[in-house]
Amino acid sequence: MANNDLGLLALRLGIGGTLMAHGAQKLFGAFGGGGLEGTAGAMHAMGFRPGKRNAVLAGASEAGGGALLALGLATPVGGALAAAAMTAASFVHKPNGFFATDGGLELPAVLGLSSAALAVGGPGRISLDEATGHVLNKRWTTVLALAAAGFGAYTTIKAREQTVAADASAQEAADAPADGPDTPVAS
C-alpha cells in the first residue's frame, strides 16, 4: 500500500462524506437541512424549475456521487455526478465572489474540482473499483460520465439563467407605473 493510495482514500472519504451530508440535507432534512420540501422551495426561489425535480436531482447527485466517491466504486460516475451538481451550485454562488465567508463559490467549486479530479485520476488501490477489477472504472466510462455531466450541468445552468431573467423582467413589469413611464400626468 503506497502513500498515494492512503492519500486518495483520505481525499475520497473527505470529499465523498461532505457531499453525502449535503445530499442528505436536501433529501431527508438531515444535519439541519431543509429536506425535500424545503429544498424544493429554495430551488424554485433560486430559479431551478420545477423546484422539486431539481431538489431530487441535486440531492441524489450529491448523496449518490459522494457515496460512490467514498467507496471508490464507479469512481468516474460518482465524480461526474458530484462535479455536475457542484458546477450548478457554483453558478448560483458566483455573484457573491469567491470566498465562502461572503456566500461565494469557494466550497462548491473546490468540491466540484476535487470530484472531477477523482473521476479522472481514479480511486487508488484502497477502493471497491480495485477490488472488482475496475469493471466500472474504465477510460470510456470516465469520458462518457464527464461528458454527460457537463451537458447536464450546462443545460441546468442555462435553464436557470433563462428563468432568472424572465422572473426579473416580470418583476420590472409589475413594478412599473400602470400608466407607463412616458405618460404625462394630468394636472
From TrEMBL:
<dbReference type="Pfam" id="PF07681">
    <property type="entry name" value="DoxX"/>
</dbReference>
<feature type="region of interest" description="Disordered">
    <location>
        <begin position="165"/>
        <end position="187"/>
    </location>
</feature>
<keyword id="KW-1133">Transmembrane helix</keyword>
<keyword id="KW-1003">Cell membrane</keyword>
<keyword id="KW-0472">Membrane</keyword>
<dbReference type="GO" id="GO:0005886">
    <property type="term" value="C:plasma membrane"/>
</dbReference>
<dbReference type="InterPro" id="IPR051907">
    <property type="entry name" value="DoxX-like_oxidoreductase"/>
</dbReference>
<comment type="similarity">
    <text>Belongs to the DoxX family.</text>
</comment>
<dbReference type="InterPro" id="IPR032808">
    <property type="entry name" value="DoxX"/>
</dbReference>
<keyword id="KW-0812">Transmembrane</keyword>
<protein>
    <submittedName>
        <fullName>Putative oxidoreductase</fullName>
    </submittedName>
</protein>
